[in-house]
Amino acid sequence: MSRTKRITLGISAAALAVGAGLGLAGMASATTTPTPAPSASAGTAVPGDGSGRGGHGHGGERAGLGGANAAELATKLGVDKAKVTAALKTFRDAHKPTTPPAAGTKPDRTALQAELAKSLASSLGVEEAKVTAALEELRTAEQADHTAALKTRLDKAVSNGTLTQSEADAVTKAVQKGVIGGGGR
C-alpha cells in the first residue's frame, strides 16, 4: 500500500473515531444533569449550598443525591429555605473528598443518602424518616422529568431522521440499565 493511501486511511480512521466519540458523548449527555436513583448503578452526587448548580459539588440550591432543590425540600419539610441551604452546605463540606477516588470506585451511595437524611434531620429538627421520604419524593420527581426530557429528545431525533426508532430504543435501554448517563436510571 502506498504511503499516501496509508496516510489517507489513518486520517480517515482518526476522523471516524472522533466522530464516533462525539456521537457517543452526545448520546451520553442526553440530559444535562444526572439523576441518581436508589439503584446501585447510579453515581453519587454531593449536596449543594444554594449558590448555583448542584449535583457533583458545584454548589447550588440542589441537594445533590437526586438533585432535590433546597426550596422544594424546605417546603416539603416545613422549614426555612436558608436553613436547608445551610444544612446542605454543612453536609457537603463535611463529605468533600480530600483525595480523588481510586479509578472505578464509587462511594457507598446508600450510606451517603442515609447520612444526608440523618444530618438534615439533626440540623433542621425534623424526623429522619420525614427527611428520607422528602428526598426520595424529590429524587423520583426529578428522575421522571429527566426521563420525559430524554424521551422528547429521542422522539425528535427519530422524527427528523437523526436516529432510527431502534437506535432510540437502544439509547433508552442503555440509560435505564445505567450503561450511559441520562434520565430513567
Task: Tell me the layout of helices and strands.
Layout lengths: L2 H26 L41 H8 L3 H14 L14 H16 L3 H32 L5 H12 L9
H/I helix tally = 6
The helix content is: 55-70%
Contiguous runs where pLDDT drops below 50 for at least 5 residues: 27-67
Radius of gyration based on Cα positions: 20 Å
Question: Regarding quaternary structure, how should these chains be classified?
Answer: single chain
Strand content: under 5%
Overall, the morphology is elongated
Quantity of strands, as a count: 0
N-end to C-end Cα span: 48 Å
Structural class: mainly alpha
Q: Average pLDDT across residues?
A: 74
Sheet with most strands: none
- The succession of helices and strands, N to C, reads HHHHHH
Describe the protein's architecture and organization.
The chain is mostly helical and 185 residues long. Helices cover 58% and strands 0% of the residues. It has six helices and no strands. It has helices spanning 3-28, 70-77, 81-94, 109-124, 128-159, 165-176. Helix 4 (109-124) crosses helix 5 and helix 5 (128-159) runs antiparallel to helix 6 (165-176). The longest helix is centred in the C-terminal third of the chain and has 32 residues, at 128-159.
